[in-house]
Amino acid sequence: MGFAGALRMRSVWSALLTFLALPVFLAATGEARADFRVCNATQSLVGVGIGYRAKAGWVTEGWWHIEASTCKTLIEGPLSSRFYYLYAEDSERGGRWDGPINMCVADKEFKIAGVNDCVARGFQRAGFKEYDTGEQASWMVQLTDEPATDGAAAVTGTGSP
Questions:
Q1: pLDDT at 151
Q2: Binning pLDDT at 50, 70 and 90, where does residue 155 land?
Q3: CA-to-CA distance for 123 and 63, rounded, in angstroms?
Q4: I need a labelling partner for 30 at 20 to 30 A (CA). Which of 16, 120, 124, 127 fits?
Q5: Strand duo 139-147 + 70-76: pairing
Q6: Contact 97, 143 (CB under 8 A)
Q7: Are residues 20 and 59 in the same domain?
C-alpha cells in the first residue's frame, strides 16, 4: 500500500472513530436533554408536587424529596404541555412555595386524577403556582430563600436546562 492508500485508510479510521465517539462525547459534555427539573437552592429538604393536563384530564403527582442544593427531574423527556403547576414545602422550616391554582395532594406519595372535590375524595387541597413553558421542550424551576416582591419565597422558572 502506497502513501495515498495509507492516507485513505487513515481517513476512514478517523471518520469511523469520530462517529463512534460522538454519543460518548455528547454524554460527557452534558448535552441538554428535555425534561422538567426542579432545583432546590435552599439549605433545607423540600417536598415537591407537580400538576399538569394529560390526555385523560388533570393529574397531580408527588412527593419528590429534593435535598438542599440539588436538582431533581420530575418529568423526563420533551414536555407535552405548555402549562405546569408546582407546589413545594420546606420540610425543615415549614415554609412553602405555592400559588392560586387549587389542586389535590396527599400525605404520602401520590398520583391523583382530577383537581375537583379534593377533600371529599380523601385528599388535601393545595395552591399550585402556574408555569407557562411557552411550549419549550424543557424547563427548570429554582426554589430559593430570597423573598419575592410580595414577601413570599421566590420561585423562578426558565426554559434553559
A1: 42
A2: low
A3: 14
A4: 16
A5: unpaired
A6: yes
A7: no
Give the residue numbers spanning the domain of 84.
35-158
6 and 57 assigned to the same domain: no
CA proximity to 31, closest of 22, 20, 40: 22
Per residue, the 3-state secondary structure of 79-125, as one string, reads CCCCEEEEEEEECCCCCEECCCEEEEECCCCEEEECCCCCCCCCCEE
Q: All 3 cell numbers of residue 107?
A: 400525605
What predicted TM-score, i.e. pTM, was given to this entire model?
0.72
Number of domains the chain is built from: 2
22 backbone dihedrals φ, ψ, rounded to 5°? -55, -50
Q: Is 161's pLDDT higher than 50?
A: no
Residue whose C-alpha is closest to residue 36's, from 65, 62, 75:
75
